[in-house]
């Protein structure tokens, strides 16, 4: 049976059907309806954040947060991420400055941030990549010292907590993605969390064309509102998300048992003080040490109807749309990881038997090496 890199979490058909039934009575389908308001409130509680602004998707949430902050100049960010992070910066007329990543957990290497700061730097946009918590304390110190905004791309970090705090409470704002492929989904959707009530107000207007009231449009906004069908899906999925994360934990532990101490394979470290969400299971394959390349591994799995992804390859700074605009940025660790990483299948619906089978195929490629 085919196994994809992930499989979306869904409530039962009956649960969702029941949830959307009232929409046929109210005919209130979008524009901050009752489900939208309820979901924002419940997500605030779940994520342990003071304010949640819901969006049509995570990308628009990030793009509009940068717009609302009226930033200009350079933004320090990571190239080891999904295209969205860098596009959101560039589409706001800002200049991304690429910081290299940590060799262990693949988040921005905080010790390399300060050397990138110039008098044009306005903000830092780090990514909690794979749900790994960035060096939030060090980033906060640097940002305070230099008067910079910090906007986290927390697209992978739904439900992650650090030292008992919701991950969305760090920095000036955080963006979450509720895309179908993420740990928690609203089909398509996203949110911004922040303790800044003024920012929430700006976002409310921007995602609704900049409309302040019936007669006043005071921002050049767009349409990025979450609709009631997505909010209803979100309310259903929120009831099950802890159980889903629990299932992911078992999958992750099984992978760790098989792949945790194999020469040439690097997996994520367990992080102290972190409530993890087990969003992804990346493995960095060193061909010389392991005996086979990541392409060999991907091909072998594909022969068996198992589909993995090269997340994240290429680096955003090397994407075709940017030509050689960012060619000067030197990020050797990000290059190294990007050229060797595979994300293995990970979802709540995977069984330990599946994981055993997948790992058996990977380990069969060691060419007789013993560890
Ligand atoms: C998924 C993702 C996004 C964009 O979220 P959408 O909801 O798909 O728009 C942004 N950044 C990262 C790192 C992501 O993985």
Please sum up the structure shown.
With 371 residues, the protein is α/β, with parallel strands linked by helices. It has twelve helices and 15 strands. The chain is 36% helix and 15% strand.
Number of domains: 2
| H/E element order | HHHEHEHEEHEEEEEHEEHEEEHHHEH
Dominant shape: globular
Major sheet summary line: 7 strands, mixed
Range of strand content: 5-15%
Structural class: alpha/beta
If helices are DSSP runs of H or I spanning 4 or more residues, what is the number of helices? 12
> What would you say the CATH architecture of the largest domain is?
3-Layer(aba) Sandwich
How do the strands line up in the largest sheet? 1-9-8-5-4-2-3
Mean pLDDT: 97
| CATH topology category name of the largest domain | Aspartate Aminotransferase, domain 2
Query: CATH first level of the largest domain: which class?
Result: Alpha Beta
User: How many DSSP E strands?
Assistant: 15
Unreliable segments of 5+ consecutive residues: none
Query: Can you give the helix content as a percent range?
Result: 25-40%
- Oligomeric grouping of the chains: single chain
Bound molecules: pyridoxal-5'-phosphate
Specify the CATH homologous superfamily of the largest domain.
Type I PLP-dependent aspartate aminotransferase-like (Major domain)
Intertermini distance: 30 Å
């Amino acid at each position: 049976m085919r196994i994809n890199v992930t499989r979306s979490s869904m409530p039962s058909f009956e649960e969702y059907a029941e949830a959307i039934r009232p929409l046929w009575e109210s005919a209130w389908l979008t524009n901050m309806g009752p489900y939208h308001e309820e979901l924002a409130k419940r997500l605030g509680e779940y994520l342990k954040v003071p304010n949640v602004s819901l969006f049509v998707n995570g990308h628009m949430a990030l793009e509009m947060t940068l717009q609302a902050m009226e930033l200009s100049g350079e933004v320090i960010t990571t190239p080891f991420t999904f295209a969205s992070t860098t596009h959101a910066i560039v589409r706001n007329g800002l200049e991304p400055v690429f910081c290299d990543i940590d060799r262990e957990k693949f988040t921005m290497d905080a010790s390399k941030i300060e050397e990138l700061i110039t008098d044009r730097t306005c903000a830092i946009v780090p990514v909690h990549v794979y749900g790994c918590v960035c060096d939030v304390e060090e980033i906060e110190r640097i940002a305070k010292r230099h008067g910079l905004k910090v906007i986290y791309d927390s697209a992978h970090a739904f439900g992650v907590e650090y030292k008992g705090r919701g991950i969305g409470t760090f920095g000036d704002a955080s963006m979450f993605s509720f895309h179908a492929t993420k740990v928690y989904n609203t089909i398509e959707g996203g949110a911004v969390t922040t303790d800044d009530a003024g920012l929430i107000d700006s976002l409310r207007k921007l995602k609704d064309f900049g409309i302040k009231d019936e007669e006043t449009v005071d921002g050049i906004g767009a349409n990025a509102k979450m609709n009631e069908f997505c909010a209803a899906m979100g309310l259903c999925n929120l009831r099950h998300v802890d159980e889903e994360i629990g299932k992911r934990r078992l999958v992750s532990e099984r992978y760790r048992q098989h792949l945790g101490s194999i020469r040439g394979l690097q997996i994520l470290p367990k992080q102290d003080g972190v409530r993890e969400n087990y969003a992804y299971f990346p493995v960095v394959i060193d061909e010389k040490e392991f005996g086979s390349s990541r392409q060999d591994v991907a091909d072998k799995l594909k022969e068996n109807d198992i589909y993995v992804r090269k997340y994240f390859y290429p680096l955003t700074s090397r994407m075709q749309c940017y030509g050689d605009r960012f060619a000067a940025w030197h990020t050797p660790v990000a290059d190294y990881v990007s050229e060797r990483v595979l994300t293995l299948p990970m979802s709540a619906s995977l069984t330990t038997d599946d994981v055993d089978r997948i790992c058996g195929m990977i380990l069969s490629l060691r060419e007789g090496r013993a560890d």
